[in-house]
Amino acid sequence: MRLLVLLWSLGPLLWQLRTSLLRPEALVAPLLEGNPWTLANYQLVLSGDPPFWRYLGNSTLVALATTLLTLLLAVPCAYGLQQQRGLLRWGVGLGLVGAAMFPTVLLFLALLEIARRFGLANDLLALSLPYAGLSLPLAVLLLRAAFADLPTELEDAARLEGLGLGQRLRHVLLPLLGPALASTGILVFLASWNEYAIALTWISRNDLLTLPIAIARIGGGSVFTIPYGAFAAATVLGSLPLLLLVLVAQRPIVSGLTRGAVKG
Amino acid sequence: MKARTASLLLMAPALLLLAAVFLYPLLRYGWLSFQASSVLTGLEPVPNGGANWGRLLDDARFWTDAFQTLRFAVCSVALELVGGLGLALLLHRPLRGRGTLRALTLLPWALPTTVMALGWRWILNDPHGPLNAAIRSLGGSSYGFLSTPATTWFFVVLADVWKTLPFVALLLLAGLQTIPEDLEEALRLEGAGRLQILRRLTLPLLVPYLALALLFRLAQALGVFDLIQVLSGGGPAGSTESLALYAYLNAMRFLDFGYAATVMLATFLLLLVLLGGGWWLWRRGDLQGRREGAA
């Protein structure tokens, strides 16, 4: 059973790995002689113009900037929302749930207009603005649930000690939010690393493409002209960081999604 | 009073960005959908008195796409719920190496959609892909999986299920973890089999989680875009085109922004009606069930 599940999940990826290591001729027909295995596809991808690691770097930069910005905005917002009562709390909460479910591709046209008007296109750091906006609903909901789990006596005690709001947040509450911050951050990182529609329309310069767009471009031609070996190598290289992230951060990812489901 | 004002200030930056990203586009589309803004008007908005909406009602392609999108969403989400439940039950059992198993099954969800959409195109390639190689070695002949509507549709659904099933499984796993083990133990002592436990205990307690997964996934699937754009391009002959892809083509290929905004807003309204209606029906059934239970 476990094996079947693993085969289903990893099969298509393992096939990419195999494809990436084969000589182009060996993809089309079984070789009659010689060694069919090669690293040439990787060399091709890594020596391209721009080299492939550039796209990895672009995606990492956008995803890190987005994660930082999202957390900076979401933590105070979640705290403030937790302090609110009545209609405002209910309304904002409902709005956040609605926004978290919204299919984001429908937003790209208006966001593209904003990018053109304010000269934000072809700017990786500016791309983290809409990304942070898209990530905020989920991040605020997750962090609000985390704030709700903290005992209120703790903050009351800190208030009696004479600590201001900023000090309470920084020295008392945030240290206890570590796990929630980690899992929220990882979910935001993954979402912005993988985003497609907005990156597709905001970024046109070849050396600024994020990984999903760059890979879609490699395969952009007709089905017959796609250099599948090189493309498979790109897929493998692009999957490795995510594989590492998922293996290392499995626990916070699962607990983040879990908390979101239980509290949301 | 002061604390409440301070907490409002804390929320302000995030709410402003949210308004810019979610609220402004909807308002903008509302306005743009009453303008002609295309190559014909030099890409400048000119009021056209609701002509876009009239065109939408008569646009066979829009309604075909709406039907195709709905069919795609219903089929793939149904498969994801069933498969996700199975996977969640497996991942919930205390197995050796459960953490690694969870991480590896999660991987398809963590990868960019476009990456694996292209991966599937290679697997389905005619004649060099592995699927066709396997068919040939069994004595069949190569088949263009992505050149007939029925098989293309099938593999679009399959690729979507492959990618999002782990996500659904994790949501359901969260639900499974809230079920106290002694309840299960009590039923087992009564002599209930595994299927009976599933039907009498597990499924009823999972209903809120199934509903959450259903709602969330339906909303996402009705907006499907990147998977279809890369895997099939909406083809063959538009048979897998989704509403979001049609809206994208209107904006970026036909450069008809007024109509693109209309299509996007209409898609959003359809989504709202479907999910809102579904939610309302579910709540009504739920309340009725409770009333009958009480009576």
Task: Give a structural overview.
- The complex is a heterodimer of chains A (264) and B (295).
- Chain A has 264 residues and is mainly alpha-helical.
- Chain A has helices at 2-20, 24-28, 40-46, 52-83, 86-101, 108-117, 124-149, 152-160, 165-173, 178-194, 197-202, 211-218, 228-248, 250-263.
- Chain A is elongated.
- Chain A starts with a helix and ends with a helix.
- The mean pLDDT of chain A is 83.
- In chain B, 76% of the residues lie in helices and 1% in strands.
- Chain B has twelve helices and two strands.
- In chain B, helix 3 (60-92) packs antiparallel against helix 9 (194-222), helix 7 packs across helix 9 and helix 8 (181-189) packs across helix 9 (194-222).
- Chain B has helices spanning 2-32, 51-58, 60-92, 98-110, 113-123, 130-137, 149-176, 181-189, 194-222, 226-231, 243-252, 257-294, and strands at 35-36, 46-47.
- Chain B is globular, with a radius of gyration of 24 Å.
Briefly note the CATH topology name of the largest domain in chain B.
Answer: MetI-like fold
Order of strands in the sheet with most strands of chain B: 1-2
Task: State mean pLDDT of chain A (0 to 100 scale).
Answer: 83
Number of domains of chain B: 2
Major sheet description of chain B? 2 strands, antiparallel
Order of helices and strands of chain B: HEEHHHHHHHHHHH
Radius of gyration of chain A: 23 Å
Structural class of chain A: mainly alpha
> What oligomeric state do these chains adopt?
heterodimer
Radius of gyration of chain B: 24 Å
- Weakly predicted, low-confidence segments of chain A: none
Distance linking N and C termini of chain B = 46 Å
- Name the helicity range of chain B: over 70%
